[in-house]
Design goal:
This protein has about 725 residues and is α+β, with helices and mostly antiparallel strands.
Length: about 725
């Protein structure tokens, strides 16, 4: 790879940009650059292709001028050209208004001498070429009082203002001495006019007026044409030439006679007998005087001569009422009713009335119903007579209804399982099981609800649980000890609480007979303990101190050692560039002034490589604000496999951490090229020491990285194997 180093102004770099500073501007600007290869060796005596553009406004502004040149490097790798002397691509170098800046110079170079420009650089012209700028004065300060010189020796010194006025009144072209000897004077002209007047003859006897009279030609045929006939001729239109034969035209009398036989003599009618026949006249004559214009038809009118009678009425069927559906009784079935709303069909089975319907209920009076499923709609029910039952065919499972005894009896030769919500038999949604041994078993999550004064008790009434809701009491009545055995499988286990019949309570003692009113085998935790009137304080943990957040303050935590109070102010802190903050120094702030980027306070290493020993494309091509964080993660993840013990720029930044104010900040990364540019612009404020170059995390290809050359002041590109410094940054 070849690199182009362009030096515009500083003489300390041993290269020179020369702008023509002459009395007469040559409309050119000198430009020099040094080209080096990927090994940092200069490229000597080689033809290179270059395109130079002058950009207006910014580094990405409009090109007001562009040209191409193909210079040859000298033995020092130096190319020297004159901008404005190349092959013009666009614009006019002489027409550039240098006062309307800023201006930037963009160079594109093809090291092979063609137009495949692979090296690009843009930098600002910080000093305008004075010879070009001085063509016009931008501002005249102080004013000028001009005094014209007086030349007393010149003949023109005697010309007066009156003579100048006379000269100004001259018109035409007056050059040199004019010979006017051939022109007549006013006196001579006056004498000539008098002579001409004396030679004009006397014309007083000549004709002075005349009235013209047109001649009359009496022999012409037109002499007999009168004024009336002329008016008629003027009224003719179209082209009338020669004699016209009008014998085929009808006379007014003939037309009137024909029309009288064919058209009714009624004003406004123009129908012939073909259009208005005698039958039609008769029909119209039959309409009664003052008859309605729109007759309202009556569907029920049956008089066919009436005006509102409707002919050819279609037959409309009678509205359906349900009786159209026919039901026929089959075997052992009776059908009554008409099928209408008022008299619906009633279907009964057999000759006897086994089924009876009353309202929405259906009663079955005798016999058995054998069926697999019976589905009832909402609010429907099946009602049985006394001693009615639902049972299986083997009679091992049945439900009996003994209304006289007010009993519903479930008979089962095994467990009775209550499974609300069950979809299939034995589905694990069963909540309560009445075991065949008489025990009632509730599944996990099931509950029993009792009304006021409900109770659970043994048959001998020696053991009871009472629920007195009104008094908000759950009472356990026991004629012996009350034992609470949590998790016990049998016997008395550790963790059991016993209330002895003598009133003593034992917790975790493992015995059925506590020795004192309260015997505890274990630790008691409480807020306060009082013994015989003596209050024993409980050890404090810090939470006793209460902290309340005031204005612009937040308080978090419990005040204990494990969770101390953390008090923060919500008032915005004024931050500045170069300020030490959160482990580094601020070099960029966003519009809020509360967020931005921080750089490490020093170089993290010199001579660091970008790669980890192997050239590869990692895909870390992000550039811009905060892009370096993702780039760094990609670089480290991709290159660590190349050498597990290797150390490279991105890893050094990712491993960096610093503790400031008791907080450790470990979210550092290698900046993108854009972030590196922002950082180096504040190099002086940050106090960063000089270095041959700094790495960015923005990758160009498998071998090169996009950097920013601070010394030259323009973007640069470097090989990953080069050794440069690294500065870590973090966002806040």
């Amino acid at each position: 790879m070849r690199k182009l180093f362009t030096f515009l102004v500083p003489l300390a770099f041993s290269v020179l940009l020369t702008a023509g500073v002459f009395a007469q501007s040559p409309e050119k600007m000198s430009y020099q650059a040094v080209i080096r290869n990927s090994s940092d060796a200069i490229v000597v005596n080689t033809l290179v292709g270059m395109q130079i553009s002058i950009l207006q406004g910014s580094a990405g502004g409009t090109a007001v001028y562009a040209e191409t040149q193909t210079p040859t490097t000298n033995e020092n790798g130096l190319v020297s050209i004159e901008i404005g002397n190349g092959t013009v691509v666009s614009g006019n170098f002489a027409a550039i208004d240098w006062a309307n800046g800023p201006y930037f110079i963009k160079t594109e170079t093809d090291p092979k001498g063609g137009i495949n420009y692979t090296i690009t650089g843009t930098s600002q012209l910080l000093t305008v070429p004075y010879a070009l700028y001085a063509k016009t004065a931008e501002t005249l300060k102080g004013g000028i009082i001009e005094t014209d010189p007086t030349f007393t020796k010149s003949p023109s010194a005697n010309i007066t203002a009156t003579e100048i006025t006379k000269l100004n009144n001259l018109s035409g072209i007056n050059t040199g001495d004019q010979d006017l000897s051939a022109l007549a004077t006013k006196t001579a002209l006056g004498d000539s006019m008098e002579q001409v007047r004396g030679e004009i003859p006397d014309v007083s006897g000549f004709l002075t007026s005349y009235t013209e009279t047109d001649p009359t030609f009496t022999k012409s045929p037109s002499a007999n044409i009168t004024a009336t006939e002329i008016t008629k001729l003027n009224n003719l239109s179209g082209i009338n030439t020669g004699d016209q034969d009008l014998s085929g035209l009808a006379t007014t009398t003939a037309v009137t006679a024909d029309l009288s036989a064919k058209v009714d003599k009624v004003a406004g009618k123009g129908l012939s007998t073909n259009d208005y026949t005698t039958p039609e006249k008769t029909k119209l004559a039959g309409i009664a005087t003052n008859a309605e214009e729109n007759v309202q038809a009556d569907w029920n009118q049956i008089t066919n001569t009436a005006d509102d009678y409707i002919k050819n009425k279609p037959t409309i069927p009678t509205a359906a009422d349900g009786s159209e559906t026919k039901v026929t009784a089959g075997t052992n079935v009776t059908v009554t009713g008409a099928g209408t709303t008022a008299s619906p069909y009633l279907v009964n089975a057999g000759g006897d009335a086994f089924w009876e319907k009353s309202g929405d209920d259906i009663f079955y009076h005798k016999g058995k119903i054998l069926t697999s499923d019976i589905q009832l709609n909402n609010n429907s029910k099946i009602i049985f007579d006394d001693n009615g039952q639902i049972g299986s065919q083997d009679d091992r499972h049945s439900i009996h209804f003994r209304r006289k005894d007010n009993i519903m009896e479930l008979r089962e030769y095994g467990d009775i399982v209550f499974s609300p919500g069950a979809k299939i038999p034995n589905e694990p949604t069963k909540k309560m099981i009445l075991k065949e041994n008489g025990n009632l078993q509730l599944q996990a999550g099931a509950e029993l609800f009792f009304k006021d004064n409900g109770q659970i008790r043994s048959l001998d009434e020696n053991h009871e649980i009472l629920f007195r809701r009104e008094e908000n009491i759950l009472e356990l009545r026991e004629y012996g000890d009350i034992v609470f055995t949590s998790g016990a499988r049998g016997g008395i286990e550790q963790g059991t609480m016993i209330v002895h019949e003598n009133g003593n309570v034992g917790i975790g003692t493992g015995t059925r007979e506590p020795e004192s009113k309260l015997t505890v085998d274990g630790k008691i935790t409480c807020e306060e303990l009082e013994v015989n009137g003596l209050v024993i304080p409980i050890a404090v943990d810090g939470s006793e101190t209460k902290v309340t957040a005031g204005t612009n303050v937040t308080v978090t935590g419990a005040g204990t050692s494990g969770s101390p109070y953390v008090i923060n102010t919500t008032v915005a802190t004024t931050l500045t560039i170069g300020q030490s903050y959160q482990g580094g120094k601020i070099f960029w702030l966003d519009a809020s002034g509360q967020h931005g980027l921080i750089a490490s306070t020093s170089n993290l290493g010199e001579g660091l490589h970008w790669y980890n020993g192997i050239y590869r494309y990692t895909g870390a091509s992000g550039d811009g604000l905060y892009a370096g964080a993702m780039n760094t993660a990609i670089i480290v993840a991709t290159q660590m496999a190349d050498n597990q013990t290797g150390n490279f720029a991105a890893k050094v930044c990712a491993d960096y951490s610093v503790t400031d104010g008791g907080v450790t900040y470990g979210d550092w990364y290698l900046p993108s090229r854009y972030e590196l540019n922002l950082l180096l612009q504040k190099k002086m404020e940050l106090g960063i020491s000089n270095c041959a170059g700094w790495w960015s995390s923005t990758e160009y290809n498998a071998t090169d990285v996009l950097n920013f050359n601070y010394l030259v002041g323009q973007p640069d590109r470097n090989n990953k194997a080069s050794g440069y410094c690294s500065l870590a940054v973090r966002a806040f």
